[in-house]
Amino acid sequence: MAHGTADRQPARRPGGRNARVRAQILAATVELVARDGIAGFRYEEVAEFAGVHKTSVYRNWPDREELVVEALLRYAEDLASVADTGDIHRDLVDFLLALAGGLETPFGRTLEQAIQPARQSPTVQTLTKILDQRVAAMRRRVDTAVDRGELPPVDSSFLGEMISGPVHLIVNRGMRPFTRTDAERIVGVVLAGIRATASHA
């Protein structure tokens, strides 16, 4: 009887296969966008690249833009998160490392390039929303640190720009990898400056 129960455990759940197919399609879309850029992305290639039937792509995403947008959002979720360990310095360092890690991938570089042009397409507008999510997550974490007394009152958007700007600069120049030492120095200098400014106010 126990053997029969074990056999039945991996039984299919409703929607399980569809969820797996969707994940394959999104992963394939990310790879194709990374390879060809958003402008060169070909909707027709996705099914073959994902190893699924074309109807699975068209049924789930009748519109090319919707598919690209969902793939971008799925990829960018990690870039928009900021941990809260109770140590603002550590959390910001980890955030910068995750940001740099994402930007250093082929897809991350495509994402960066895509937000440079005028914001005319729905895809590019969505990319700006991803950045807005990242800024909002940063603002919430900094505001929490201020409430706890970890930081003096500070413009959280400005702090976010100050610490993330150097990451984009180092990664986009591509002259060397972004390291934990870089992140520690950036966060240390910015937080020290904020604290020193507040103490002289």
Automatic annotation (TrEMBL):
Q: Which residues bind DNA?
A: 42-61
Keywords assigned: DNA-binding, Transcription, Transcription regulation
- The answer on whether this UniProt entry bears the keyword Transcription regulation reads yes
Q: What are the HTH tetR-type domain coordinates in residue numbering?
A: 19-79
InterPro entries, alphabetically?
Homeodomain-like_sf, HTH-type_TetR-like_transc_reg, HTH_TetR, Tet_transcr_reg_TetR-rel_C_sf, TetR_C
Organism superkingdom: Bacteria
Q: Say yes or no: keyword Nucleotide-binding present.
A: no
Q: What is this protein called?
A: TetR/AcrR family transcriptional regulator C-terminal ligand-binding domain-containing protein
